[in-house]
Write a structure and sequence with these properties.
Elements: H1 9-12, H2 19-34, H3 36-42, H4 47-60, H5 80-93, H6 95-114, H7 117-128, E1 134-137, E2 153-157, E3 160-171, E4 178-184, E5 194-200, E6 206-210, E7 219-230, E8 234-235, H8 241-277, E9 279-280, E10 283-284, H9 289-317, H10 323-349, H11 359-367, H12 377-386, H13 390-404
Parallel strand pairs: 1-4
Antiparallel strand pairs: 2-3, 3-7, 4-5, 5-8, 6-7, 9-10
Helix pairs in contact: 2-5, 4-6, 5-6, 5-8, 6-7, 6-8, 8-9, 8-10, 8-11, 9-10, 10-11, 10-12
């Protein structure tokens, strides 16, 4: 298979992927490579302008077509393996392009999975064409990864709701045309009292507060003050907000793992080329045993991350009930491994690795947030531990007891 270095062709040949995935990888990898000059330009463009530009480009070139399933787009697969492959290639190529693609996909997915016919007809065509930018607003300063602790209130008022409160650290906050907002309507305690709403950005009472992130991008807080929305803005039904949020996060955690894999592969490739070309100690850096060991560790982490991510996406696509556990595992491992790989690449570059806007320095800033959003590593470790099968423990205890005898 002829593909770019942003994918591992041997991995794509495994039974975890089908022919249409390999075809997509080849086509999408070629597309990413063809826009080399653009990627250089967007890095020098203010994040809001580049963010909207990239969403429009992805839509115009057809890569967001799967966000409008009702229109039918047989040439673009819509499963999780395809989404992961897209994020892996975009992260390898340009962080801002991955950010634009991922957040647009993230915000459209609740509509695809839970929206009624009118909501889908109203919003999804524009999102698929890149003409309507979406954002998903669940995080709050006092909630973070604890979705059940969301406190933004939505009280009944006539034929609608009035939203009051704030959301924090929202991707695409400053350029979004539509927000999916999870608020507390009080149908029950904790997770039972949450509802998801579709809130257009021009709704009176809604405003955004821009933030500067460690890696520049469209990012900010969302403030809602006496923000009135009609009954038809409810996504799914009242009280279903927690289910919608968790369904989305469980699916997209594996795509974060895929993005981490893309960053890590770019760091590894860059370090490999550098060490082979950098003259030192009568040879090249690559000739040094400790350098070879560092590059070998990168390769091991890349392979493990790729397999865990592919398995999680395969489990989800085949309808496996335990896919969320595998999604959590893939995100924990791949993001932590990518951080280690990028850090090692900076080390191998030495002083050149910390020069602003060089590839290692850029990757170092970009990778850090992946260990936090869509569920921080620490929270997901607890979730993985909580998913350990009691029956498995009982079987293991019985087997070990027999061996002891």
């Amino acid at each position: 298979m002829d593909t770019t270095t942003m994918y591992d062709p041997d991995l794509l040949d495994l039974p975890l992927y089908d022919a249409h995935h390999r075809r997509f990888a080849r086509q999408f990898g070629t597309w990413c490579t063809s826009y080399g000059e653009l990627w250089e330009t967007v890095r020098r463009t203010p994040p809001d302008a580049s963010g909207r530009q990239l969403v429009e480009l992805l839509g115009a070139d057809g890569w967001l077509a799967g966000l409008d399933p009702d229109a039918g787009s047989p040439d673009i697969p819509t499963d999780l393996r395809t989404l992961c492959l897209a994020r892996e290639a975009l992260a390898y190529t340009e962080d801002l392009a991955d950010f634009a693609y991922s957040i647009q996909s993230l915000s459209a997915t609740p509509l695809i999975r839970f929206g009624d016919e009118e909501q889908r007809r109203r919003y999804l065509p524009g999102m698929a064409k890149g003409l309507l930018v979406g954002a998903f607003a669940v995080s709050e300063r006092e909630a973070g990864s604890e979705v059940a602790a969301v406190g933004l209130s939505a009280r009944r008022d006539g034929n609608g709701y009035v939203l009051d409160g704030s959301k924090a650290w929202i991707a695409h906050a400053t350029i979004a045309d539509l927000f999916v907002v999870v608020a507390r309507t009080g149908e029950g305690p904790g997770p039972l009292g949450l509802t998801a709403f579709l809130v257009p950005a021009d709704t009176p009472g809604l405003r955004t507060e821009p933030l500067d992130a460690i890696a520049p991008r469209s990012f900010g807080h969302l403030v809602l003050e006496n923000c009135r929305v009609p009954d038809e803005s409810v996504l799914g039904r009242p009280g279903k907000g927690f289910i919608i949020a968790m369904d989305l996060l469980e699916r997209f955690r594996m795509t974060v793992a895929a993005a981490a894999l893309g960053f890590a592969r770019r760091a590894s490739d860059t370090a490999l080329v550098h060490t082979r070309n950098r003259r030192a100690y009568g040879g090249t850096l690559f000739d040094l045993q400790l350098v070879k060991a560092s590059l070998a560790d990168m390769e091991v982490r890349l392979n493990a991350s790729a397999l865990l991510t592919a398995r999680a996406a395969w489990e989800c696509d085949r309808g496996g009930r335990g896919f969320a556990r595998h999604s959590n595992i893939a995100k924990v491992y791949a993001t932590e491994a990518a951080q280690q790989t990028v850090d090692a690449a900076v080390q191998l570059f030495g002083a050149a690795g910390v020069v602003r806007d060089g590839v290692p320095e850029r990757l170092y800033r970009q990778i850090r947030s992946l260990r936090i959003y869509e569920g921080s590593t620490d929270v997901l470790r607890l979730a993985v531990a909580g998913s350990l099968d009691v029956r498995r423990a009982e079987r293991a205890a019985g087997r070990l007891a027999k061996e002891a005898i």
